[in-house]
Amino acid sequence: MNLQPGVEVYQFIRDRLEDQRDEQHPHGHQAYVDARRKAHDLSNDYANAVHRGDDDEAARILQGLRTMAAEWKHHPDYPSDPTDPSADRLTAQESAELDRLKVEHLVLEDEKRSDALTPAEAVRRTAELDLKFKELMARVQDRIVASTVIPDAPPAP
């Protein structure tokens, strides 16, 4: 665990609470103060757990911060969760394919250095490998875009 996820979620909560405060906090000023204090305390507890190396406690506290932040989950600045399997990253299959392409790239580079390939063959295989990388990245981008939820825009004033 590192400090960054906790800091990001805390700062996100703090900013949203300040937005609410500026819009006349719907639950009154004391509710704002209490929520801000709770987020601050959780953030400090998270940092202390990370420094102690207590990953289980840090994960539990980070989940508490994320629960507080869930109210604003469709906000464009909502922090990503690197532990969420649906986060914008490679699936296990995509990761395995990328690993295979990396190995293929290393083999190709070794063959080029050892003059085992003619220049024309090296160019052809490099182009094929480049195309495979581009196809994989296009599939990943398409999957991410297809799964992205874009919240409705607020009505114009």
Concise account of the structure shown:
This protein has five helices and no strands. It is mostly helical and 157 residues long.
Molecular structure report:
The chain is mostly helical. It has 2 domains: 4-72, no CATH class; 92-147. The chain has helices at 4-22, 29-52, 55-69, 92-113, 119-147. The protein is elongated, with a radius of gyration of 23 Å. The two termini are 43 Å apart.
The helicity comes to 55-70%
Q: Termini distance?
A: 43 Å
Q: What's the gyration radius in Å?
A: 23 Å
**Count of the separate structural domains:** 2
Ordered list of secondary-structure elements with their pairings:
Elements: H1 4-22, H2 29-52, H3 55-69, H4 92-113, H5 119-147
Features:
157 residues; mainly alpha; 5 helices
